[in-house]
Amino acid sequence: MNLIEWLKVLLLGIVEGITEWLPISSTGHLILVNEFIKLQQSPAFMEMFNVVIQLGAILAVVALYIEKLWPFHTRKYAPDKPVFASPSDNKALAWCQNFMTNYFYMDKIILWLKIVVACLPAMVIGLPLDDWMEEHLHNYFVVSLMLIIYGVLFIVIENYNKTRKPSIRRLKDITFQDALLIGVFQVFSLIPGTSRSGATIIGGILLGATREVAAEFTFFLAIPVMFGASLIKLLKFGFSFTGTEASVLIIGMVSAFAVSILSIKFLMGYIKKHDFKVFGWYRIALGILVLLYFGIKGFTAA
Q1: Of 72, 129, 134, 286, which is most buried with the most CB atoms under 10 A?
Q2: pTM for this one?
């Protein structure tokens, strides 16, 4: 590969790092960017690359939020009071309770259980339809349509949200029912151009979460979802890479990781003082430009 090709890989990683966390659709942007800077790689590799590159972005969440996510501790840091209100009379169950108190942060275990619950709708619906969606929905018309629709939704929902007081101000205020409903919103993000973060943030806000809580839960929800999606694509590809393909994947992931750190910090700082409407207007403008570009391209080709 020449220098230009490596610069293309770097650019794709940068695009992924920015768009994975801002609610503007990373998959949609990668599909569009690939239109203009096609890598000299096989279609099968690029299909896998566009998903697995997101692992770099996910590792940025782990790095930034490890204290909120890591559920284990040693006995030295066990709470003075037992986590469970009353020890069980059953010896085996009492031992389990004591073990959990000595080695686990129960609030973080509960958070992870809520994340798992939120993943279930996408797993049940997304896995059987993965190949069908890849064949029928990964095109410019669907991407641009979803960019516009969810752009309008962000503006409408933020206007509606002005008069409401959030009822979910902390992560622990999210109930298991809330988590499941946010997971239902995530199902819509299976359509390219929707934005996984956009769909789940909209769901969180509608359920009464603050923007910060909705965004953080969205970040955490991405961890199992994207690890699972990446594993599926790697299994389909066969884990068989040439040296160049492995290098392309690593560079894309590393650049996505570095840019994601900055992107997440920017978003969390931005939404403390602003709403999401600017992203809605951006989506609408981009969706219209995409429709015009590919419409003109198709007309001239005909």
Answers
A1: 286
A2: 0.87
